[in-house]
Design brief:
Oligomer: heterodimer
Strand content of chain A: under 5%
CATH architecture of chain A: Orthogonal Bundle
Order of helices and strands of chain B: HEHEHEHEEHEHEHEHEHHEHHHEE
Number of helices of chain A: 12
Shape of chain A: globular
CATH class of the largest domain in chain B: Alpha Beta
Largest sheet of chain B: 7 strands, mixed
Distance between the termini of chain B: 92 Å
Distance between the termini of chain A: 40 Å
Number of strands of chain B: 12
CATH topology of the largest domain in chain B: Rossmann fold
Helix content of chain B: 40-55%
Chain lengths: 291, 406
């Protein structure tokens, strides 16, 4: 493998990793605070991607600006989802909770199939084929924008969790739900906000990702499994872990793909998952450590 | 207690009834009796959308034949389709083939979309001496195992590399030189079958393969693969990818200002999604078995008749194949002046369709060799100004290929 190819694979891996982090951060927030595994996470990403596509196609809104339209809609969805489905599900065993979110995932996929059909839809702009050259290697513009948004979002998350009351409350609830309740913290309200913000992050990811890729009813599935791997590798509920896990998965996958074959590369994130589970089951950056 | 059930007389009657069709020779049937063709299509299951689509073409062929007065040599006998749903499952395809042959007593069969569902159906038909016209399965072995009753309008999978080499030779003769090839294929069964075909054919035809890249469907970033393709020194790229991946790959190539000759594979490339990618897909080529703009009178008439029967719909290549398959069986029965299975089989071996409503496919002649294979061919289409246009072979092309750098 030549130096150029290696550097390109490294840069692509970093970009992909940042995009993966953008998808996984909401998943880890919901799990960290509520201990709910949301299997429908990818489907909300799919809805956000359709949101970005519709805003661009019918309203002529640039995907970057569409973020400000789609993110609030996704937050509202999270808010309603908590009241309508998750809150009742909190009272039942965890396996039932999983069945609820898994069912929701399939329901959303098939509803999207009914509404949008199976066709792939694209957002085509001038910058779809623009790129930034860094010496012999390059990063494509839509991917670069999504990666940048991811870094900004993770920085914002860090500030909110460390410096604001809401962040403090969320950290408290995630450490000890009963202790927080005894201190007079509104657990239901905190959960509702966690769900709203968790899905709201997808409102940022969706429009930016649809301009780099495409959208179809099953596109969320491409990212759900990878997001789970990242969250588990990084340490469930840990924000620092999401970034480390996502970059690790992105780079490992990209280098393996350029060095070996695509099929081997596809197995790499899962091999990494097994390795981490065996050697460090709490994840690379356990949740307690990053708080 | 009285004997319940069947008495001796009824048993005799029933036995006679069961034996009757076997005793009376089939060519002894009334001349105006309909020609029964069994149609095996998946109308449920994973291939349902393809099956439903193909059924429309089978039905259109039967309707056109019947509207034109049926089969002349059989006293205007109508074509009657006995349609069955094979549920996209090989075992159902096998069972339904048996049922159509023994219970429905069809004179011939056609179908059954994918290779996996066609292979068992073809084997059963051959064993039961019933002509089977394959519509769209491309598995090589189907017409290489000496089955006497199996015929195919479609191409063989292993011929695709040859078509592309022929096309590149044609380009060379027009002064557009492509010397070295790079491959980029998805890592699933379809992509890998095409890849092994290209790697075995292209170097022998004078097109060395400089790099051979595989990727996974849903890869979010193709810039590494695009870099490898660009730095390999190849001036032609052959791909096999699903439409969504094609768009991401084409954009990655465009982002690197790399515009080589690009040939995508089949319906996954010759697709609205790929056109929607805009400029990066412009001037790319695709290899397909048929294209609706094919410059052939019967083909254009088929597209028109199809649009009249199904407003707003443009037929796809597998529908053209289904249409031709049904027509060929009817023409064979007409030529044989019989609905007898053996007579139809013999007529198929001497059938030669060069014009008329069945001459829809790009090959100049539709006939079948001793293995039942037709000399089918593919066409090369090119994305020009937001439309796929047939550019090769010259005989059926709408226009010559446009320069790659648009």
């Amino acid at each position: 493998m030549s130096t150029t190819i290696f550097l390109q694979a490294l840069l692509s891996g970093l970009t992909n990793g940042a995009i993966y982090a953008l998808v996984a951060v909401g998943l880890t927030l919901v799990f960290g605070v509520m201990r709910i595994v949301n299997f429908a996470h990818g489907e909300f990403l799919m809805l956000a991607m359709y949101g970005g596509y519709l805003a661009f196609t019918f309203l002529g809104i640039d995907p970057i600006l569409a973020v400000f339209l789609v993110a609030p809609v996704l937050m509202l969805m999270g808010y309603l989802l908590f009241g309508g489905l998750i809150r009742p599900a909190l009272k039942v065993p965890e396996i039932n909770q999983m069945a609820v979110t898994l069912g929701l995932s399939l329901l959303l996929q098939y509803l999207a199939l009914v509404v949008f059909k199976a066709d792939n839809l694209l957002v085509t702009q001038e910058r779809s084929t623009a790129s930034i050259w860094l010496g012999p290697v390059l990063i494509q513009m839509p991917q670069a924008i999504a990666a940048l948004a991811s870094i900004i979002l993770l920085g914002l998350f860090y500030v909110v969790l460390r410096k604001t009351d809401l962040g403090l409350i969320m950290r408290v609830v995630s450490q000890s739900r009963d202790g927080a309740a005894l201190s007079g913290i509104d657990i239901g309200g905190t959960y509702r906000w966690a769900m709203a913000i968790g899905l709201g992050t997808l409102g940022i990811a969706g429009p930016l990702m649809v301009s780099a890729l495409y959208v179809n009813p099953h596109v969320g599935q491409l990212f759900t499994l990878k997001a789970f791997v990242i969250v588990i590798v990084g340490g469930m509920g840990s924000f620092g872990g999401v970034l480390i896990g996502a970059l690790l998965v992105g780079i490992a996958e990209s280098i393996a793909a350029s060095w070996l074959t695509a099929s081997v590369a596809a197995a790499v994130p899962f091999a990494l998952l097994i390795l981490v589970m065996l050697l460090r089951p709490e994840g690379l950056v356990p949740a307690g450590g990053s708080r | 207690m009285t004997k319940s059930g069947i008495d001796r007389r009824q048993t005799l009657l029933m036995g006679a009834a069961i034996a009757m069709p076997a005793i009376i020779p089939s060519h002894g049937r009334a001349a105006t009796e309909a020609l029964k063709i069994g149609v095996l299509v998946p109308t449920t299951g994973v291939h349902a959308s393809d099956g439903i689509r193909m059924l429309k073409a089978h039905q259109l062929a039967a309707k056109l034949i019947n509207d034109a007065g049926g089969l002349k040599s059989l006293g205007g006998a109508k074509v009657e389709l006995v349609v069955t749903d094979i549920q996209s499952k090989p075992e159902v395809s096998r069972a339904e083939t048996e049922r159509l042959i023994s219970r429905e007593r069809v004179s011939a069969l056609t179908g059954a979309w994918a290779s996996a569902t066609t292979i068992p159906a073809a084997q059963i038909a051959d064993r039961n001496r019933t002509p089977f016209m394959i519509t769209s399965a491309v598995n090589d072995a189907l017409t290489e195992q000496g089955m006497k009753y199996v015929f195919r309008t479609a191409v063989k999978a292993k011929w695709f590399g040859g078509y592309i080499a022929d096309f590149l030779d044609y380009q060379k003769s027009k002064g557009i030189s492509v010397g070295k090839i790079a491959l980029a294929t998805e890592d699933g069964p379809a992509g890998q079958a095409v890849r092994s075909n290209y790697t075995s054919v292209m170097p022998g035809r004078g097109f060395p393969i400089l790099t051979d890249e595989t990727f996974r469907t849903g890869t979010p970033d193709f810039s590494t693969i695009a870099t490898k393709l660009r730095t390999s020194g190849a001036d032609g790229i052959l791909t096999c990818a699903y439409a969504e991946d094609s768009t991401v790959l084409l954009r990655a190539l465009a982002a690197q200002n790399f515009r080589p000759l690009y040939v995508g594979f089949g319906g996954a490339h010759v697709n609205q999604t790929v056109l929607a990618a805009g400029k990066p897909s412009d001037r790319t080529f695709g290899v397909v078995e048929w294209s609706p703009d094919l410059n052939k009178p019967a083909s254009l008439a088929f597209v028109k008749a199809f649009a009249e029967a199904h407003p707003g719909e443009t037929p796809l290549s597998n529908q053209a194949q289904a249409f031709v398959a049904t027509y060929a069986l009817a023409l064979a029965a007409d030529a044989a002046k019989s609905t007898d299975r053996n007579a139809i089989r013999d007529a198929l071996t001497t059938l030669k369709i060069t014009d008329g409503p069945a001459a829809v496919l790009p090959a100049p002649v539709l006939s079948f060799d001793e293995q039942g294979q037709s000399p089918a061919t593919c066409v090369i289409v090119q994305a020009i100004d937001g439309k796929f246009v047939t550019v090769w072979p010259e005989a059926v092309a709408v226009r010559p290929p446009a320069p790659v750098q648009g």
